[in-house]
Amino acid sequence: MPARPTMDDVARHAGVSRALVSLVMRDSPKVAPARRAAVLRAAEELGYSPHVLARALASRTSTVLGVLVSDLRNAFFAEVVEGLDAAARAVGFEVVLNTGGRKPAREREALDRLLSFRPAGIALLSPVLPSGAIGKAAESCPVVLVSRGSRLSNVDTVNDDGEAGAALAVHHLVRLGHTEIVHLDGGGGANSTSRRRGYLAAMREHELRPKVIRSEHTDEAGAKAVAELLRGNEMPTALVAGNDFNAIGAISALEDAGYRVPADVSVVGYDNTSLAALRHVSLTTIDQPRMELGRLAATALVERIRGERTAAARHLLNPELVIRDTTAGPRTKGRET
Amino acid sequence: MPARPTMDDVARHAGVSRALVSLVMRDSPKVAPARRAAVLRAAEELGYSPHVLARALASRTSTVLGVLVSDLRNAFFAEVVEGLDAAARAVGFEVVLNTGGRKPAREREALDRLLSFRPAGIALLSPVLPSGAIGKAAESCPVVLVSRGSRLSNVDTVNDDGEAGAALAVHHLVRLGHTEIVHLDGGGGANSTSRRRGYLAAMREHELRPKVIRSEHTDEAGAKAVAELLRGNEMPTALVAGNDFNAIGAISALEDAGYRVPADVSVVGYDNTSLAALRHVSLTTIDQPRMELGRLAATALVERIRGERTAAARHLLNPELVIRDTTAGPRTKGRET
DNA sequence: TCAACATATTAGAGCGCTCTAATTCAGAAG
DNA sequence: CTTCTGAATTAGAGCGCTCTAATATGTTGA
């Protein structure tokens, strides 16, 4: 590995001082055009590119935004990261990712590693960390939480409005004529709670009897929930699943049991994963504005970094209904085909 | 933000020199136990943690492995990263991710950003970069390529054996009794080429007439390919798709056209994405040893970094057949149900 | 007791950069 | 031809750490 050229090398090669090269590299306006050109040419010729680490050390500022992705396998985060990355780059920051595999211990390590880079700010995407760890991180740099709430005054949060989303699903089904709408909830997570709450509120609003089957965010769980419904012998005309995976499991179990979707039972998912869009699946679902979540997270960090805001930001974004082929009017009761 | 304590602070607080603190932090064996304890206590009390950037700058070494993920949305890479991360951490390195959205220009930028951290090594996961850019990167630090070949002697490669994988699919179908097996290929990529080659070789080996439909790695393309087959009015009994998405699109189009899978047509995918495992899909497919790919990539980098090897490593891993519910014996010709 | 040696500790230069303050340089004004 | 002014350039200290070489400290053998 040949040693990479330094600023001094460029300075010498261009016949100027290191300080001038530094100014050019940060494109300061107070460099004479001729000198600037000469420096740039010298840099080009030597194949020079600035050493960010040294820059960060010397300037005591960082342009790195650390992003902790709780689970890389979940494509949901990929788009949030994309939004975050785009917004960050637009204002001169860069994004460094790290992952924690949804295990608190590994996530702690990952957070520490991120922190040891002394980033300008940190975004935590749906972390499973204890809130104490988050608070401690927030003491050394701005922190924003995506898809997770917090009442800490020094951390910002960006969330999708799960209540609104679930309500959207219910309204859609009611509009189609459904009255027997069951919710397959997502178990423990904070997401699930608000989605369930939204479902319950919407059902109440329509004066319908709510029914919640405890489930989880996997396709297996969705299938199991349907099995439970099957045993009860009272299949509703519509299902609001906790997420897309759960919905797909439910659909699969329904079809196995001889029900047609959506002719006999309508199903709505949540998240609008790439899965839902597959023509084979074509799932009606709730779309979270993922890019926007990322963008807002980046913005929140940058505001804090620049000291433009000290109060906690609490963004709650509106999800959207995406109608595909798993919802339709209910079968006519008593006269089944 | 309160300024974080430095090594000097710890040294003063513990009544020793900065150099000693430095030794303790790198747990050097030549520090007297009493001093070590005192230093550690002081560090603890001040909440000190070393500044990695400063360390990297001073020691002119880095423990960072940069990983460029061409497409975060593709869960395939998530597992490769996991393997890479685990292996890297086990030997004292840490992984920093960056993404390029499968656009050469953005990928270039992402690579430059990664390089500007002066990482100890770089892993490129299925990059779309021109090979010149890769060669240039390899001049400043060790580089390993995953899911992409290279003949550069200073870059290592780790790949799944696509020829073997496609052959596996063909053998499986032949064993089931199929003779009319069509391949829906993946278009441009390097992956596709080797898979197609594997298909052709295996067909020849069984003395069967190969047929390749040009397609792409998306479900839409899979459906389109089936439509083409439909027009030709000669539906084969089995399909070997270029990847899982393609397979799913094909299945969906087949079912729309009244064919049952696998009763009428068997379909094999490639990649064993999480999609394939969904019970609703339950796709027979070829599994790449993703974690292992990551592990080997990390190992290759570390070997180069430590100077233990200078010759190029060319790892070619064996994929495995995962039999699920989209393959079965062929329908009996002429006596269709 | 003291040289001789091993071991523990520290001073101080330097990694590649930024930043402040000082210096140089033009050109305009007197 | 000075003097002044503002702009362009540079010297030099320092960011938080590591590393080499030098120094301090302790142990042992004669």
What does this structure look like?
Two copies of one chain form a homodimer. Chain A has 337 residues and is an alpha/beta fold. The first copy, chain A, has three domains: 7-50, 434 Repressor (Amino-terminal Domain); 62-160 and 290-315, Response regulator (Rossmann fold, 3-Layer(aba) Sandwich); 162-288, Rossmann fold (3-Layer(aba) Sandwich), CATH 3.40.50. Chain A is 45% helix and 15% strand. Chain A contains 13 helices and twelve strands. Chain A has helices at 7-14, 18-25, 33-46, 52-59, 75-90, 104-115, 131-140, 162-175, 190-205, 219-232, 244-256, 274-277, 290-305; strands spanning 64-69, 94-99, 121-125, 143-146, 155-160, 181-184, 211-213, 238-241, 266-268, 285-287, 314-317, 320-322. A six-stranded parallel sheet of chain A has the order 2-1-3-4-5-11, with helices on both faces. In chain A, strands 7-6-8-9 form a four-stranded parallel sheet, sandwiched between helices. Chain A has a two-stranded antiparallel sheet with strand order 10-12. In chain A, helix 1 (7-14) packs across helix 2 (18-25). The longest helix of chain A has 16 residues, at 75-90. The first copy, chain A, is elongated and about 85 Å long. The termini of chain A are far apart. The model of chain A has no long low-confidence stretch (mean pLDDT 93). Chains A and B meet through helix 4, helix 5, strand 2, helix 6 and helix 10 of A and helix 4, helix 5, strand 2, helix 6 and helix 10 of B. The structure holds a DNA duplex (30 and 30 nucleotides).
